[in-house]
């Protein structure tokens, strides 16, 4: 190989190695920054829980659950129960495949 090609090859290898190192360094730095965010979030949640516990202890109340979310879940549950009951009245639901098959055969005979 000529001298120029050797220099070009060495330069290409050095540039590639530098790029790989830089990307790795950036990934490690970003991962550390993201982990710091998790630590801060955990500290914030713990402080909020401590504050709520202190407020509830001073007022003698039990910790409260967000009422709007609970009410929405309860409403959705009740709607689903009503829907399930109406579907059960309209459709026969067998416990096994055989129950369903015999019901279909009975329906054909009628």
UniProtKB/TrEMBL annotation:
The keyword Transit peptide applies. GO terms for cellular component: mitochondrion. Residues 1-22 form the signal peptide. Residues 90-110 are annotated as: Disordered. It is found in: Mitochondrion. Pfam families: PET117. It comes from the Eukaryota. Keywords: Mitochondrion, Signal, Transit peptide. Its main location: mitochondrion. GO terms for biological process: mitochondrial respiratory chain complex IV assembly. Belongs to the PET117 family. This is Cytochrome c oxidase assembly protein. It comes from Filobasidium floriforme. The lineage of its organism: Eukaryota, Fungi, Dikarya, Basidiomycota, Agaricomycotina.
